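Q: what sequence does this backbone want?
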């Protein structure tokens, strides 16, 4: 098992892409096991497995700073930054909180639970970096649901003028706590439908650079994209499309039909299995 040997992001960087894919499956299996027994945020974390691995593969946390919105999707980050035991061993399940927590780790920067905060918080870190002559990467992760909050708009507005390094990962799983509402979402759909090429682009209109990654659950594609924006000298949005709904269904069926048999997940090709289910089946 690779996860058992991950004590810090340096251990992630030693793995090949094949090994990183195995690590993704192990992480999903551990999340499924722990969260089935203990509760917690399934969907946000399932969607972010590959992206979080790729972030830690490419960037150098904690010098490079990753700020999560809501921070309920930071479980994988916790697993890769010295806290995997709290996801692997039932006796240790309560040793981590469900959100980012600086008291737990030097890789966490804020105690946060509110949506729409990460871009603003990260912009403060970027401004501080610039004032003190630093050169680390500042990365904000924000979901599509949180993107329509007022503070997120303010953050994007501010960052566009900042003019220095800032990387905003838009984690687009097409779902907020329920379905998304608001004018922004038509444009996100148009961007998805056009493979990021739609001429009308909310992020560009705000004055930000933009990159689109269709396969946000592919470690190699994400590593390539993040490598391109690492050390960039202006703000950029990296819009990644991740799967969440189908994964909910997968969990739903697994829990219904195999409630006591969650250990065999490593034998399954998750992506193949989830293709069979569609979100409508749940409703
Ligand atoms: C200020 C505020 N309003 C509402 C909530 C409730 N809430 C928690 S997560 C969430 C939606 C998150 O959706 P998204 O940003 O797309 O992230 P995902 O969970 O899909 O990864 C909401 C509305 C909150 N935490 N804070």
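A:
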């Amino acid at each position: 098992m690779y996860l058992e040997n991950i004590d810090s992001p340096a251990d992630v960087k030693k793995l090949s892409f094949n090994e990183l894919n195995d690590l993704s499956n192990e992480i999903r299996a551990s999340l499924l096991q722990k969260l089935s027994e203990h509760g917690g945020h399934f969907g946000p974390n399932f969607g972010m497995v590959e992206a979080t691995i790729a972030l830690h593969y490419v960037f150098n946390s904690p010098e490079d700073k990753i700020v999560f919105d809501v921070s309920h999707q930071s479980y994988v980050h916790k697993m890769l930054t010295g806290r995997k035991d709290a996801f692997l061993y039932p006796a240790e399940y309560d040793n981590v909180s469900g959100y980012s927590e600086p008291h737990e780790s030097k890789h966490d920067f804020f105690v946060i639970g509110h949506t729409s905060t990460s871009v603003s918080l990260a912009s403060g870190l970027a401004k501080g970096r610039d004032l003190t002559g630093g050169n680390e990467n500042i990365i904000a992760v924000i979901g599509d649901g949180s993107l329509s909050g007022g503070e997120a708009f303010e953050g994007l507005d501010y960052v566009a003028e900042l003019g220095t390094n800032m990387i905003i990962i838009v984690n687009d799983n097409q779902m907020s706590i329920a379905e998304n509402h608001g004018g922004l979402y038509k444009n996100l759909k148009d961007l998805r439908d056009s493979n990021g090429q739609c001429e009308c682009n909310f992020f560009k209109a705000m004055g930000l650079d933009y990159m689109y990654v269709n396969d946000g659950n592919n470690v190699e594609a994400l590593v390539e994209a993040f490598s391109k924006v690492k050390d960039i000298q202006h703000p950029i949005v990296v819009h990644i499309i991740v799967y969440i709904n189908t994964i909910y269904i997968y969990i739903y069926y697994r829990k219904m039909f195999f409630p006591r048999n969650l250990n065999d997940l490593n034998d399954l090709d998750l992506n193949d299995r989830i293709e069979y289910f569609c979100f409508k089946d749940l409703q």
